[in-house]
Every structure is written in C-alpha cells, then in structure tokens.
Amino acid sequence: MTTRTMLLGGIAAAALAVGASAPASAQYTDGVIKIGVLNDQSGTYADLSGQGSVFAAKKAVEDFCKAQKCFEKIEVIFGDHQNKADIGAGVARRWYDVEQVDVIVDTPTSSVALAVNQITREKNKVFLNSGAGASDLTGSACSPNLVHWTYDTWALAHGTGAALVKQGGKNWYFLTADYAFGHALERDTAAVVEQMGGKVLGKVRHPFPAQDFSSFLLQAQASKAQVIGLANAGADTINSIKQASEFGIVQGGQKLAGLLVFITDVHALGLKTAQGLTFTEAWYWDTSDANRAFAKEFSAANKGNYPTMVQAGVYSAVMHYLKAVHALGSDGDGAKVVAQMKATPTDDKLFGKGSIRADGRKIHDLMLVEVKKPEESKGPWDYHKVLATIPAAEAFRPLADGGCALVK
C-alpha cells in the first residue's frame, strides 16, 4: 500500500501552490494546508470513491482559489486504506504525526472511519467523512473534530426503508455485510420497519468483501420475506443483485431493497438488471446546470465515469473547510476549524445551502430515486428519476435522538 502526493497540475496549480505572501496574522502549519484523501483505491469501493474523490478534492481547491485569493500552499495527497481499520489507522497516524496532514476526507468503510475519527480527535485535526455511512459517527462516536457530510445509515433507513414499507413491503429479511456499516444499516432499517408495523423475519451476515452470495441469497429466498434488504454497498451490492437475478428471486415475487446504491453500481449492473430499484441519494448529476457541468468535467478526467454522491460530498466538504480555515487564518486547531464550519452556513455549487449541527451532521435535502427502464434513458448515465425530495429537516436523525455528548 502506498501513499502518493498529488500536486494540483498545470499552470493554475502552480499559482495555487505558490500563492502570495500570507498575511501576518495567518498561521498555517508548515505554511501548507495539507488535505489527505483516505479511501479505497483498488477494491470494492474504488469506483464510488477512489481516484474520483481525489479529483473532487483537487477541484474544490481549484475552484476555491479562483473565487478568492489563496495566501498559502494547498496540497492534496491520497492513500489506500484497503478497507481495513488497522491500515487506515496507520495511515492516519503517519499523516498526522509525520506528514503534517491537517484534514482527512472521504474514508468509506465505517470500521476504518470510526478508527480515523478517534485518532483525529486525539491529534486535534479535522475529519470530513463523505464515504462511510454508520450513523454512530454523529451518535455515540461523535467528535468535535468531525463533520459527517453526505449520508448515513439512519437517513438511508428512513428514506428507502420507509418508502418500501409504505409500498406494502411489511416482512423483511436482511443480507448484511459483516462489519460496522452493515450492522448499522441493518439496525437502523429494522427499527424503521418495526416502527411502521412491519416484521423482520431473519438475517444472514456475509463476509466483507465477498464474491459468492448464493448460500446467503438462498436463505433469504427460503424466508419468503416480501423484501430482502441488502445492507451492503459497492461491489457487494452489485454482486448480490446480479446473483439474485440469476436465482430468479425478483421474478419469484420478492423485492430487493438496495439500502445503499450508487450510480456507479447502476452503471455496473446495467439498466436491464437495475431497473425499478428504489433508493436514497444525496446528490445526482442531472438535477442542475452546475451539477451537469461538474459531471462533464469529472467524466473527462475519470475514464468516462460520472460522480457519485460520495465524490460530490468530498468537493462540498473541502470547499467549506477551506472557507473556515481562511476565515480563522489558521488550520492548526482542528476543533476550532470544525467549530467555525458549524458556525458558518454551508453553500456551494453542488449541494447548495445547508448547515452543520452540533453533533457534526451536515444537513441538506435528500432524494428518493428509482432506476429508469432502459427505454426511459436518454443517454449515458441517465439512470435516475427523482420520486420525491426528502426535506433537510426530515432527512436525518433528530438531534436529540443520537446520544451525542456534544449536544447540550
């Protein structure tokens, strides 16, 4: 596993890296604002985060410095945590202690994110999580050094889970990735199902990551549950859906609930297989001119792929972080930077206006979407139709219910 330094390329990058002389009052550690993108570069989550998130972080720096004069060098590096908590924790410690990284962003895989969250608090740095889903990050594990940006398991459960129960899916069986994210998503969705009068008939947990889901799917099929809840993500979700189709599970009358689905998953599945999937999204490329422009530029730099909500969240989070450190004139005290981020309303071209709560939860609207039929798609990556907007005030867990010690 290697960590490579990514300096912003080209003429514009040279201007950003050199900048002008910093104001006398500004205090940036080592004269550099150093951003570390920590994620999966080659495994099950590489498409939904990976190099696309690195591009998003670099693009945020570029756009920020176009909008206002940067007085310091801003550097973006990246590392591969390989979806392993010990590796992710090791990278985080080295970055903070040796490489003077000021902020870690992205970090899908909740077990890794929970470890990095604790280290970030110990080192008084900043952790901007876009990729991991566990709602514990703003609950029992909340930290004054964390902002949880894009989505979480509570939001997915109350968006997708509630919608499917309302459609008549009262009896559920869960196929769950056996690590922190899967457990949290299963827990939060099961709670919604039961609160709405439904019943959980059973569950089975699969290794993370996995390739063969046949035995798990056969157990789910035998349960005769109306809904099979896929509490997994990335390649695990893709393979679960493909193999479920091969077994004729959907054709037999059971419905698959992709509790976390990304546009890259839909692309990998193809519309013929993915059509009709209903799920919760925080961001979709074809909902505004700004989103479409970002997607076009992203695609040109990322082998034709379009951005996921995680990658868009990295852009948004880095943009707001840079506003905060410039307002403070310092990146040295992570808790103070996060406090400044919370005190300032969020506003950027991809997510629009929002806010950050005391527990570190970034608040914005979510969308309930459905995958189009092949004949409904008008072109490449035209995959989603928006069924409903979930208002920001309803999209995330109520502040008082999370058990965060920061909430007075």
UniProtKB/TrEMBL annotation:
<dbReference type="GO" id="GO:0006865">
    <property type="term" value="P:amino acid transport"/>
</dbReference>
<feature type="signal peptide">
    <location>
        <begin position="1"/>
        <end position="26"/>
    </location>
</feature>
<dbReference type="InterPro" id="IPR028081">
    <property type="entry name" value="Leu-bd"/>
</dbReference>
<dbReference type="InterPro" id="IPR028082">
    <property type="entry name" value="Peripla_BP_I"/>
</dbReference>
<dbReference type="InterPro" id="IPR051010">
    <property type="entry name" value="BCAA_transport"/>
</dbReference>
<protein>
    <submittedName>
        <fullName>ABC transporter permease</fullName>
    </submittedName>
</protein>
<feature type="domain" description="Leucine-binding protein">
    <location>
        <begin position="33"/>
        <end position="372"/>
    </location>
</feature>
<comment type="similarity">
    <text>Belongs to the leucine-binding protein family.</text>
</comment>
<dbReference type="Pfam" id="PF13458">
    <property type="entry name" value="Peripla_BP_6"/>
</dbReference>
<keyword id="KW-0813">Transport</keyword>
<dbReference type="InterPro" id="IPR006311">
    <property type="entry name" value="TAT_signal"/>
</dbReference>
<keyword id="KW-0732">Signal</keyword>
<keyword id="KW-0029">Amino-acid transport</keyword>
